[in-house]
From TrEMBL, chain A:
UniProt-recorded name of the protein: Zn-ribbon domain-containing OB-fold protein
Domain ChsH2 rubredoxin-like zinc ribbon, first and last residues per copy: 19-53
Leader sequence segment: none
Domain of life: Bacteria
Domain called ChsH2 C-terminal OB-fold: residue spans: 56-123
InterPro entries xrefs: ChsH2_C (IPR002878), ChsH2_Znr (IPR022002), NA-bd_OB-fold (IPR012340), Thioester_dehydratase-like (IPR052513)
Pfam family name, one: OB_ChsH2_C
Automatic annotation (TrEMBL), chain B:
Molecular functions per Gene Ontology: acetyl-CoA C-acyltransferase activity
CDD domains reported for this sequence: SCP-x_thiolase
Name of the molecule in the record: Acetyl-CoA acetyltransferase
Record keyword Transferase present: yes
Keywords annotated in UniProt: Transferase
Gene3D superfamilies xrefs: 3.40.47.10
Origin: domain of life: Bacteria
Sequence ranges assigned to domain Thiolase C-terminal in this UniProt record: 275-392
Amino acid sequence: MQHATLPHPVPTPLSQPFWDGCRRRQITLQRCDDCGRFRFYPCEACPYCRSRDCTWTEIDARGTVYSWIIVRRSVDAVWQARAPYIAGIIELDIQKGLLIPAIVIDCPVDSVRAGMPVEVTFEQTDASTVVPRWRPVS
Amino acid sequence: MNPKPMAAIAGIGWTEYSRKSGRTVEALALEACWNAINDAGLDAADIDGLVSYSLGDSVTTAVIATDLALPQLNHFADFAAGGNMACGAVLQAAMAVATGQASHVLVYRALNGASGVRYGGAEFSRLLAEHGVHSDSEPQFLDTAGITMPAQHFALLCRRHMIKHGTTNRDLAAVAMTCRQHAIDNPRAMMRKPMTESDYDKSPWIAEPFHVVDCCLQSDGACALLITSPERARDLAKPPVSILAGILGASPSNRGAMWGNFSPDHAECYGRYLGDRLFRQAGIERADLSFAQIYDCFTYSVIGQMEGFGLIEPGEAGDFFRSGHGSIGGRLPINTAGGLLSEAYIHGLNHVVEATSQLRGEAGKRQIRDAELGLVTAGGATSTGSALILGR
């Protein structure tokens, strides 16, 4: 496998807690201290109520396939080596409209469907990097 | 009644569109600018404003101002932006003219998009990040999820549309084939071989549901437009084309660049929020349009924007194109030069050039009879974009 050469996330102070959470095998998202809503991507303010106060919170990372593609040809050698693969967007169960980009694994590429239930799993791509993957709920 | 136009297009210019120009971007930009100046019957010394947009793959307005030895530059803008700025750049020039900032403004886009920096590749994420189009928080999540190429981003939007509205690859094929049919009669176009549905099906999958032919071309070339006041334009060499209305905007909460992660639906198009204002400002109805040039970085983008701007109902696009409504001679001809899919990818500015040619009656074999009003859009049917309504 080409794990060693997969892209590393380059965390910023804003996103570091997400990646720290991945190393604990947890999806951790910002939750607004004022309106209680989760958000993703990480933002310095709540896009729903403008509050700048939030708490990083571990979630029950289950969701459904909101959109997906089958990557069959990539100009990026490291991803071409994995092709075909399913890249998608997951809508998380904890909040309607809460979307996160994803790779869906453990699923034949032609059998992915809209609304398919998925849960998080994690892949260690190098010594210090753990990234989320999503797999069908069995 | 139409309101007074805010400005006019008095000159257009372009270079050859190719896969390997063998020239600098500076040379391409300059040739297109000179062609626009000459087309208007002006002198370089008349130019006092310059507007362009790029993601670091072009030359700045300072370079062109120097190459044209401009006596004075009264207004310039170099936008770090993608194709969503194509109409916005023209709008910027029109606003500069309308507010007295400058009298004759050149808008150009130049790139070696095939032989130099290619937008279609994995470099795209880096370009967005380095030029501040993405905030610093987004690329890390996309790159690690294997979403690195524009085709992948837009295929995700397209799939969402398929889920919601039952759109199929047959519908995408109808868009691709219509654009190709128009390119056949365009001497500038890079792709002039007819495309059948079987050609479409045989094109390799790249990011399913997209075949390679669902994606726009990559091109070397440049085009330019000369913007001035409506009064001044009447005295120049060519029939003026009026800029009746423009928008440059976004859906709410459009952070996320390639999709509105905080929008009510991630496949929602900016046109849904801004379209009504655009038509109201122009003082026209959608049915008044003679044609529309719809930004077509991908086949799906045409569908998403036609719906967003209210030209068709959701899910109608396939039938619209298969029935010939989008063809020259149809109810609303779309992308009459072949678009970014079949003419060239000059980052959308070539759509404004074609609209101008049509309204002047200079479009040759692809001329729409009595073309009076045209819509041009710029944006891939994401949450951000720009658009113009032009009139004869």
